[in-house]
Amino acid sequence: VLLVESGGGLVQPGGSLRLSCAASGFTFSTSGMTWVRQAAGKGLEWVSSISWSGGSTYYADSVKDRFTISRDNTKNTLYLQMNGLKPEDTALYLCARGGKVDNGNYPSRGQGTQVTVSS
Question: Residue 103 pLDDT > 90, yes or no?
Fold first, then answer.
């Protein structure tokens, strides 16, 4: 399993970013996928998940109505469109294979892309 995130950066509050996650080494089109994030000094926080078909999506309350998860199974790529960014969204964003798990453990995940929201 190889997951490579991109698209992070420095953005002002209220701005937008689109993250991408290129997947390989497994059958992406039949796998649920998840975005998690990790702020400095904190554990992994679940952000959003999407079903294998893209027909079902799930969001943490903290990002609902601001973030949109999507996927392109023809390109083996997962996306996270982030609008209305807030300083508290600052974190390392990682994509992971599979759906949300209760124990917060995502063994098949990428290295992450840093998102910093600051004026």
Answer: no
